[in-house]
C-alpha cells in the first residue's frame, strides 16, 4: 500500500474522520505527490525510515516538500497544533519537551505555570529534588 494514501484521505476526502482537521482547514497535498512514485522518491531521499512519520513543519501549511519531514511518533506528537508551546530564552518548544529537558514532570510543570504564581523561568529552573536545570543559551 502506498504510504501517502492516509495523507491524501485526510486532506481530500470529506468522509474521512480527520478531514475536518486537515482538508477542512484548507490543508492540501501538493500536486506532484498525487503520483505515488514521485512521493516515494521524495520520501526516500528525505530521510524516510521504517517507524518514522511524515510531519508538517508548519502545522498550518500544506503537505509539500519544503514543509514536510520524517520524525519519530514522539516528535510528531510534540508538533500538534493543540499542544501548548512555551518560549523561553529565545526557544519555543512544547510543554512536554521543556518538561523532559528540565527533568520536571509534565503535569508538575503545567501546574506551576497554570497557577499563575510561577513565571516561566522559575517553573523551568526551580530545584527538583536537589537538581537545578540550566537551560542552554
Describe, in plain words, how this protein is organized in 3D:
The protein is an alpha+beta fold and 137 residues long. The protein has two domains: 5-77, no CATH class; 85-125, no CATH class. It is 34% helix and 12% strand. It has six helices and four strands; from the N terminus they run H-H-E-E-H-E-E-H-H-H. The chain has helices spanning 5-12, 36-45, 73-77, 95-102, 106-114, 120-125, and strands at 53-56, 68-71, 85-88, 91-94. The strands form two sheets. It has a two-stranded antiparallel ribbon. It has a two-stranded antiparallel ribbon with strand order 3-4. The mean pLDDT is 87.
Characteristic terms for this protein:
4 strands, two-stranded antiparallel ribbon, 137 residues, alpha+beta, elongated, 2 domains
Morphology: elongated
Oligomer: single chain
Most strands sheet: 2 strands, antiparallel
Question: Counting H and I runs of at least 4 residues, what is the number of helices?
Answer: 6
Query: What does the average pLDDT come to?
Result: 87
Order of helices and strands: HHEEHEEHHH
Total DSSP E strands: 4
Q: Whole-number radius of gyration?
A: 19 Å
Beta-strand content: 5-15%
- Helicity, in percent? 25-40%
Class from helix and strand fractions: alpha+beta
Determine the N-to-C terminus distance.
Answer: 45 Å
The spatial strand order of the largest sheet comes to 1-2
Q: Please give the domain count.
A: 2
Poorly predicted runs of 5 or more residues: none
Amino acid at each position: 500500500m502506498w504510504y501517502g494514501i492516509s495523507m491524501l484521505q485526510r486532506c481530500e476526502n470529506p468522509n474521512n474522520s480527520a478531514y475536518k482537521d486537515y482538508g477542512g482547514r484548507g490543508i492540501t497535498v501538493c500536486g506532484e505527490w498525487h503520483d505515488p512514485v514521485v512521493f516515494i522518491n521524495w520520501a526516500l531521499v528525505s530521510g524516510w525510515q521504517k517507524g518514522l512519520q511524515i510531519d508538517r513543519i508548519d502545522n498550518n501549511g500544506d503537505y509539500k516538500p519544503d514543509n514536510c519531514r520524517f520524525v519519530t511518533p514522539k516528535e510528531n506528537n510534540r508538533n500538534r497544533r493543540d499542544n501548548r508551546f512555551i518560549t523561553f530564552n529565545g526557544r519555543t518548544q512544547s510543554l512536554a519537551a521543556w518538561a523532559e529537558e528540565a527533568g520536571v514532570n509534565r503535569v508538575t510543570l503545567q501546574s506551576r505555570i497554570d497557577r499563575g504564581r510561577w513565571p516561566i523561568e522559575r517553573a523551568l529552573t526551580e530545584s527538583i529534588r536537589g537538581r537545578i536545570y540550566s537551560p542552554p543559551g
